[in-house]
């Protein structure tokens, strides 16, 4: 399937290095955008607690709704890395770390592509991948897992192209991945179809032996994924997200891609279909299944668009070499590898130093003033919107809900949504009674805000474009009585 066997290994080029530096530089320039996810706050807070205590989470300590319930952090290593980076350089630390990780992922993708394809084809695929993945460039554990995911997939695909099983040292990647992010389960799942591709393309007499080698590798990969502080529980915990059922649709990143408006995903898919129709491209059956699987994942859950962006080029690289062969010499191929590595290191260190020295990185102001208003009142049981959990955790205020959806479960998530959206006002009152709510922190557009404005014994003490704060008065009556709209205006 690969052309390398005919022409020999292509000469090394600096194209991957240039791509990595370009991505790293661009992300540093747009660094604040990577701090837009409120979950970043609790990710760093957990990392700090791990460093301070020397132990990993076993139970929830951040919420009052699930206080003491079993909960483990399968992303503990990424959280520790973020916390260390933050302690060393403030917000510039996590930004630089995330930018470096994403840049490495793209450099690895380019390294795979340039072994097979013409430079122009590499650039087109690189730009499409960057455009697709860019909305998910955030300071979160999945970003640190990106280069591991790319390297793992590239290693499996390369082994399949050679008609061999992967070398055992690649198992270290699975162990690292399992400690960085729960998506390692996807890496395990990839082993099956890629093994099938290798076996089907092998000579008949060697298929059984090759299949057995892949089976051994798969079993060892499964064992490697259990080499975490939580053991095999990390593998079991990964399924909790998938067990959320209908509650997944309440989380933006888990919703299907929205095609009601023209977007980058649609543009790239249409471009891909156009190229296939124009060139008459064909792919081996298993590669078709792999590609369709990646497309399905991306369409079903928007968060998986990044997986499609990074892995589809790797899956397609060798087959596409038939139509887009390497017709030009590798860019700057005559440069010595050591010179390239040294120059790249100098550039990356310089860029990072400038970013840290400037110290201009900070998350959006968000609900900082609203949280300050809550702390001034000394409240301890705040009913908050889902997206505000990270801010409260960072401020040391117990939350009703936050981004750890696997902790709260499907039933709680759906009940919470019914309360906040007033699909059932009685559910809101029930939640407030059950958890003895003494304040709320909600988005202005949340339907529950208008009802809280009319509740006797409750008052709005703060409002801005980002958040509204209500607190319960000390003399609030028992139960919930709704005032008329006229009395509220007066």
From TrEMBL:
The keyword NADP does not apply. It comes from the Bacteria. Coiled coil: none annotated. Keywords: Membrane, Transmembrane, Transmembrane helix. The chain crosses the membrane at residues 12-31, 76-109, 121-138, 144-161, 168-194, 214-238, 307-325, 337-356. This is Glycosyltransferase RgtA/B/C/D-like domain-containing protein.
